[in-house]
Write a structure and sequence with these properties.
291 residues, five-stranded antiparallel sheet
Amino acid sequence: TKPNEARLDEYADARIDSIERSILSPEPMHEDLEVQWLTMKLSFFAERLGAEDPVVVKLLDGLSPRDRALALVRETTLTSIDARKALLAGGAEAVRSSKDAMIAFMRSLEPEARAVRTRYEREVESVERSAYADIAKATFAIEGDSTYPDATFTLRLTYGVVRGWKEGSDEIPPFTNYAGLYRRADQRHGERDFTLPKAWTDACTKLNVETPFNFVCTADIIGGNSGSPVVNRKGEVVGLIFDGNLPSLVGDVLYDGTVNRAVAVDSRGLIEGIEKVYGATSLVREIRGAE
């Protein structure tokens, strides 16, 4: 009910649809996981603040962290999508008057949580924001455009070439293909992570097994780049980034072009699988029509 500019950042208009989809998601909640997660959080508070701290006393309500977590998770109705729908439809008043255990728990902590957040924004974030700008100006004054800009959710481009790498005496080729997929599944037969779904085993004779499946290139990527398109010099989308090789795991601090590789699924492999494994011929026609 607040105007957009008066809300917390995470509840701005641009995020409302995403929040509602999350609240109304039919994805099941796993009680054991929720209990474990909440136990860890409650234990953290007790360890850091001490058992006598008023916030910890309120958090635990006379119980151990695990027993408190068990009680909250078992008593809440929020695992029911119908209960969440009713709260969403009822708005702020429904939340304020709810007797649900988890909502009452969070509602009781709101004053302390908001006070800590306000203090953090005033004493930490605002100082960092101001200092960060000064540090960035000094860095670019000294290093110019030879250094990377930091991530700001703006469009970023990186470049590289398709190239394998060397592990010891082994040359790792830049491409894999469907033949390699089936070969690996046979070699690791019976291992769960290497067992192909039936749709893929049934499609074995339909596929052109020489079709490139994945490839690596020297583009400098990091976590968060998954799903990024790989575009060749003609402007054609030739793949989608989804991983990096093991040497690239330190890419947030060091890039070594001799071994760091971005891993992408090849567009040719995508189309081959979409058409011959999943039978989505209309989608393939749409993609090819846009070529």
